[in-house]
Amino acid sequence: MLKIKQFTFNMFGINTYVVWNPETGDAAVIDPGMINDREQAHIDRFISENGLTVHNLINTHMHVDHIFGDLYIKNKYGVDISASPDDSFLGERAAMQCRMFGLPDDMAAVEIDRPLKEGDTLEIGGEKVDILSVPGHSPGSLVLYFPQSGWAITGDVLFRRSIGRTDLVAGNHQQLIDGITRKLLSLPDKTIVYPGHGDPTTIGEERKENPFL
């Protein structure tokens, strides 16, 4: 059975996840948001102390708060950046995204090495992970569904009692609602939702309690 560790990084409070198999040490880093040496050391220490080998770096989407640490993880652990090519323009405009939020604009562009799309399957720690495309927050927003573990890492698609904002570049509110309804609310009620910001929830809770749905 896989394990998951949630870190909260940078001024936007994004959730970075490390998912790993405790028997083999095979691991993935999802949405690395580390923005300084202290945050980098924090995740490095966890990886080292648990004897993990990072094989995957996956972005649920390419908004800048979720990719601050991409190049660090890529270079330190020798892994490719996996994300939807529909968000490649966001990675290319990383510096421009920083300017939008009043941040220093010296961030290097982040390029996708391994494109992911709806219907693709990854293997993390020996478990198959289904790739669901749920655009609306960004054109390339992905959800990682772990059917064996009963998890969905939703990025900024679905939060506890909320959904992703759709007022950013290429956002689409109705598209997001439709995608959540068709692809996420059809998952088992007990599926644990690990969102890009805030606390975990479940599909069943959000079906009943989320005011946006």
Structure description:
- This protein is 24% helix and 29% strand.
- The protein is globular.
- It has 213 residues and is α/β, with parallel strands linked by helices.
- The relative contact order is 0.14.
- The protein contains 6 helices and 14 strands.
- The chain has a 6-stranded mixed beta sheet with strand order 1-2-3-4-5-6, covered by helices on one side. The chain has a 6-stranded mixed beta sheet with strand order 7-8-9-10-13-14.
- The longest helix is centred in the N-terminal third of the chain and has 13 residues.
- The model has no long low-confidence stretch (mean pLDDT 97).
Q: Any low-confidence stretches, pLDDT <50, length ≥5? A: none
Strand tally: 14
Order of helices and strands: EEEHEHEHHEEEEEEEHEEH
Strand order of the largest sheet: 1-2-3-4-5-6
The main pleated sheet reads as: 6 strands, mixed
Strand content: 25-35%
Q: Mean pLDDT, rounded to whole units?
A: 97
Give structural attributes.
213 residues; alpha/beta; 29% strand; six-stranded mixed beta sheet
Q: What is this structure's SSE topology?
A:
Elements: E1 3-9, E2 14-20, E3 26-30, H1 37-49, E4 53-58, H2 70-77, E5 81-83, H3 88-92, H4 94-100, E6 114-115, E7 121-124, E8 127-133, E9 142-146, E10 151-155, E11 158-159, E12 162-163, H5 173-184, E13 192-195, E14 201-202, H6 203-209
Parallel strand pairs: 3-4, 4-5, 5-6, 10-13
Antiparallel strand pairs: 1-2, 2-3, 7-8, 8-9, 9-10, 11-12, 13-14
